[in-house]
């Protein structure tokens, strides 16, 4: 099904002129106009955004994030999921392909936590959907990030009665590797071949350096597999649903050639992300790391934050912010041109 589009901006989704997009980005513009950017880079008044994946393709940035609506919003049941694309993180298009909706016969449906990755020239999306008990994983594929194949169940015979969420997909040595959370435990499994349908290997429990973790991302950097995941911050206690959730980076203790390698993640480090006015209640949740060094020499880390913790089903008004780094150690806010 053809994706549906709406024009908008980061604040308020006010309409903009279509001609501006058609003219394209001037050749001398920087990859990202960091000097004139500020956090949050994406904030929508009527919905919470979180669990985002962000990819760059053919001059455009695509943002796939969970949408949740305020429980007091009388229109919440009629509102649709929206993804976004932008060339500058200032003005946005809203789109969604109805083929990504998973039909269920009964009850309200939850859908979100989209993990998007490019594997062997095809875009793969893994996400969770279903009534809350239990949510399960689904997948879709695309050649252009706009139009997606009808969603299919992912590993439906694997732990069939267990709730599976926060799926992350990777490919190594001709196999797909899948990480996800089930019953507050990190699991990994491997496909029997270079297809996502069929029987997967029995799932194994994985360790994020011995700590609790969720919302996973696999990323290969300079030949080494890395994991990005959300965990509890040092000394944090859970005061609200999202407080204390912080983002961490890990390194695989192996090459990735065997399933056991994907169960061992070490060197847990927390990026030092400054607290701003907009992310005091939820600081840096559900981070997603982008290696865009080929374009301007930087890694970009996108994360969800909020200044409240009451609305939007107890998750606060989640918004998307970003920091960047040359070495994965020193992180700078938009507008900070320090090396």
Structure description:
Helices cover 4% and strands 43% of the residues. The protein has helices at 18-23, 293-296, 311-314; strands spanning 4-9, 48-57, 60-68, 83-86, 91-96, 110-119, 122-130, 136-142, 152-153, 165-172, 175-182, 185-190, 204-205, 207-208, 214-221, 224-232, 245-252, 264-269, 282-292, 298-306, 319-325. Strand 2 (48-57) and strand 3 (60-68) form a beta hairpin. It is globular. The N and C termini lie far apart (45 Å).
Largest sheet: 5 strands, antiparallel
- As a percent range, the share of strand residues is 35-45%
Give the overall shape, derived from the CA principal axes. Answer: globular
Could you name the CATH class? Mainly Beta
Structure at a glance:
With 339 residues, the protein is mostly beta strands. Helices cover 4% and strands 43% of the residues. It has a five-stranded antiparallel beta sheet with strand order 1-5-4-3-2, with no helix packed on it.
Topology:
Layout: E1 4-9, H1 18-23, E2 48-57, E3 60-68, E4 83-86, E5 91-96, E6 110-119, E7 122-130, E8 136-142, E9 152-153, E10 165-172, E11 175-182, E12 185-190, E13 204-205, E14 207-208, E15 214-221, E16 224-232, E17 245-252, E18 264-269, E19 282-292, H2 293-296, E20 298-306, H3 311-314, E21 319-325
Parallel strand pairs: 14-18
Antiparallel strand pairs: 1-5, 2-3, 3-4, 4-5, 6-7, 7-8, 8-9, 10-11, 11-12, 12-13, 15-16, 16-17, 17-18, 19-20, 20-21
